[in-house]
Amino acid sequence: MLEAKDVGITLGGAAILADLSAAIAPGRVTAIVGPNGAGKSTLLAALAGLRAPDAGGVFLDGAPLSRLKPNDRARRIGYLPQESPVHWNIGVRALVALGRHPHRDGISGESAADWLAVEEALSEVGMSGFADRLVNSLSGGERARVLLARVLAGTPQWILADEPMAALDLAHRYALMRHFRDIAAQGVGVVIVIHDLALAARMADDALLLDGGRLAAAGAVNEVLTPERLGPVFGVDFAHGVAADGQATLVSAPREMPK
What are the residues facing 64 on neighbouring strands? Predict the structure, then answer.
């Protein structure tokens, strides 16, 4: 279990998160949603152990996350930031191999087990055929999948991803969410910050709805991402609709149409 207990974070004198408590279960896909400035990315960074709360704390399996050594934390929690620039035009396989760093002693080179994990991670995101390419030759969506493979190569117990769909087209968004569901089915906890509410409602298991740095709702996705809960938070009207395949979906409309 990954838990935030009474977490408060202040930046520049402003409260970004306040008195936020949430328990996130492994083996499920949890979506963190909310309008811009709600504190979603800050919460994710705190859950990853990369931003120490000013109040409260984050706990992993009942123990304070702050007590874990950085390498131990990196082996258990894989974090994919919203922006992850690659400063060197290295090969795709070499970039993904960086995800194995927490498992190495810092002296020896990559082992056979490391390279096997790299190849499996590339296969999982459908990028095996790109392994010998240079990173700068990839499209934005291809690079996003390679960066996810770098996280997967570390075989973490938790994957925390900040807007992983931002650079992907619709087909690859669905593919990535299906992949997250497959990962969660293996017992890994997956937590994603996502703006596509319809996709989250369709494919996530649970949701945390943030509003102004506070938790507006938490629980099963079909109980949190409802028109009644979302409308006041986002300031637009929501309704249940039907997708092209006949499944339920969320649709939204502004309360005042622009002139």
Answer: 59
Instruction: Name the DSSP class of 136.
Output: G
Report domain extents, the chain. Answer: 2-85+157-253
Quick: pLDDT tens for 136-163.
898 877 888 888 899 999 889 999 999 9
- Exposure of 95 in the CB half-sphere (CA atoms within 13 A): 26
SS3 223: helix
Sign, CA torsion 176/181/187/188 = positive
pTM: predicted TM-score of the whole model, two decimal places: 0.89
Render 84-134 in DSSP notation, one character per residue: ----S--BHHHHHHGGGGGGS-SSS---HHHHHHHHHHHHHTT-GGGTTSB
In the structure encoding, which two tokens stand for residue 258, read together?
């622009």
Tell me the per-residue pLDDT of 232-241, one tens digit each, with 9 for 90 and over.
999 999 998 8
Distance spanning both ends of the chain, measured CA to CA: 48
In whole angstroms, give the CA distance from residue 141 to residue 162. Answer: 15
What pLDDT was estimated at residue 6? 96
Give the architecture (CATH level 2) of 2-85+157-253: 3-Layer(aba) Sandwich (3.40)
